[in-house]
Every structure is written in structure tokens, then in C-alpha cells.
Amino acid sequence: MPGKFVKTLKTIGRWWFIFLIAIILIVFLFNQLAAIIITIITITLFALSYIPTRLFYRKLDKILNKVESIDDKTLARKLKRPLAQIQEKMFKLSKKQSKKSSLIIFSNKHYIFYNEMIITNFKSYYNKGLGEKETLEKLKKFDIKTRTEIKTIEETLIKHERLEDRKVSVKEYRDKKRYS
After folding, report:
1. How many whole angstroms separate alpha carbon 8 and alpha carbon 174?
2. What is the pLDDT of residues 104-115, one digit of tens each?
3. Is residue 30 domain-resident?
4. Distance of CA 130 to CAs 10, 30, 127, 150, Å?
5. pLDDT grade, residue 11 (50/70/90)?
6. Who contacts 42 (Cβ-Cβ below 8 Å, separation ≥6)?
């Protein structure tokens, strides 16, 4: 239901915009000063319509910078926004994350954000040769709950070419640990 309502509003908004341009052109033919005033008012209202969106993005960035990890449900509760809107924004952020130090993963139909510290620790454990199980044990203090999250972090880092090859393989690490 909300999706249909939003689509209807967007359609009405497009038609109103076209209708408004036609009115401005008609008024311009008869009274140029009135057309200029209507145009200034329209541009001002259009610019003001972006303020709530900008405030939302600023709050989102502020929360993401404060936490170590957070999932989309918790973020939606903190921002008092619909889950679909949070997931849409996190989807957009996840597409632009190849150069960022933090990471957003998609696991079990939910987005999860991890800050730079968690990703740095993950990379160091990965390069030391730790497997998923050992990495999970080390990263449990950062609120990582499952091996699926570890695997998804690894796959996402590889996909965005942010993870180098292992210096020590998992097999070498386990053999070294077993024999020492």
C-alpha cells in the first residue's frame, strides 16, 4: 500500500510540475514580472523540498560513524524511518563502497554495516591464515554472530577488490598451530 501511494504522489508531482511550467509560460506572455515571481517561488519551494532528505542523510551518516556495527532493523528504529527506506539507502551506499574503509554487507535479506576497525581486524586475521571459525571467535566482541557474516564480509571485500591474497593459508596456519 505505501509503495502505491508513493508512486501516485510521484506521478502527481510530475504532472503538477508540467502544469506549473505551462502556467508560468502563459503568465509570462501577459505579465513578465508575475512570471518571474512565480518562478522564484517555485524554485524556492523545490529547493526547500530537499531539506528533509538532506537531514535524513546527515543523521544516517552520524549514526554510522558512531557505531561499530549495526543492522538495518536497528537503524530503522533509531532513525524512526521505514525499513524499506533504510534498506534502499544502505543498498545505494553498498554500491559506492569500493573506496571506503567501512563495509556494508547483504546477508539473510538484511544489510549490516561494519566500521573501519572491524574490517581492519578482519583483514589482519584473514592475512594471518585464520579460517572462518577462528575469525568468528576473534570478532565475537564486535557483535558478529555467525560464520555467514564472516563469509559475506570476505566475499564483499573480494568483490570490491579490497582484500589481498592471504600471506598464510588456512591449512598452513592450522598445521603450525597443531605442531607448536
Report:
1. 59
2. 888 888 899 999
3. yes
4. 50, 77, 8, 11
5. low
6. 20, 24
Is 59 part of any domain? no
What's the total number of domains in the chain? 2
pTM for the complete prediction?
Answer: 0.71
86 and 132 fall within a common domain: yes
Is the Cβ–Cβ distance between 89 and 60 less than 8 Å?
yes
pLDDT at 2: 55
- Torsional sign, CA 71, 72, 73, 74: positive
Domain span including residue 102: 82-173
Q: What pLDDT was estimated at residue 157?
A: 85
Kindly state the cell numbers that stand for 1: 500500500
169 and 110 part of one domain: yes
CA distance linking residue 112 with residue 145, whole number of Å? 12
Q: Which helix (H) or strand (E) holds 70?
A: strand 69-71
